[in-house]
Amino acid sequence: MTALAPATLLIIDDSPENLFVLGALLRPHYRVLAATSGEIGLRVAGSDPLPDLILLDVMMPNMDGYTVLAHLRDNPLTHDIPVIFLTAMTAAGDEERGLQLGAVDYITKPIKPVVVLARVRSQLQAKQARDWMKNQNAALEAEVVRRMAENDLTQQVSIRALAHLAETRDPETGNHIRRTQGYVHQLAMDLRQHPRFSATLNAPYIDLLTRSAPLHDIGKVGIPDSILLKPGKLNAEEWVIMKTHAKLGSDAIEDAERDIKTPLPFLTTAKEIAHWHHEKWNGSGYPDGLCGDAIPLSARLMAVADVFDALISIRVYKNAMSFEQARDYIAAGRGQHFDPDVTDAFLANFGAFVRIAERYRQDPGAYQGG
Predict the structure, then answer these.
(1) How far is it, in rounded angstroms, from Cα 128 to Cα 120?
(2) N or C: more exposed end of the chain, with fewer CB within 10 A?
């Protein structure tokens, strides 16, 4: 078993005699460094290895002990090194001043060896305890960060797994999920300074929104293949069934929420998106006929993202529109289908949405934000 290295002490005193006496007393127990002035002491204190404890004379020429201590406390490297003042001054005001400046103890001269050894030992034990606690706190913080990262990854994988479940029913939705996630993130970033949305679209909410977006069509797993994959226009009866996917999705997420004791914000956002992303600004959408600001912002953003991507994508029942045609369609729906301000943000930065569409048409890799 390797023995622990002895603690390092630094003695700063302009008197060679005092340095000799203290050194002879302390060297049998500790590694002792010495400095004959405040200036030299500051250089030694900031050098490797840093001292574990400093014994500092108060009355020194050029730079007294109070000044040295102030410099020690101003330096991040030496800020936490405990300092014991050594002085022949005995006035209560002198001791009080030293303690107020940050000294941990005060030993008067002429020194008493037993007192010096006891106080040095006491302060080193206190420092050891503080260092241990600091290391424990650092270890706990690192573990918290690790577990948060693990939980974050688990959450992302769970969302992705559910989204892929929807893909197994409708192979055309794979890149649709990634593109719409990208569109929603872009819209939120473009609107985060807008007076109507700035209170909601902060960084944590945008993160939740982006994570939740892939679940917007999770309810389609409950739609029969004969309807979901029909190579043609749905009849009235089939359309009624297709529209149930919005509520099916939100109900599934709500069932998951009931199974946990602590509500998760991302599930709440995912439920909003799944349930209401087919609502329209003028109230003519489904499933609840909400209008205007009664439609959650998350769903209003997804509405633009979802429709744009559907328009530019080939489906078994239709051909794809060009980017320009899709843009014109979204513009025509301003204030009818879509929130006017969300529409304006989409049109103002249309090139960014085209780039997202092209990126995930070519690369099916998972959307990472940005």
Answers:
(1) 12
(2) N
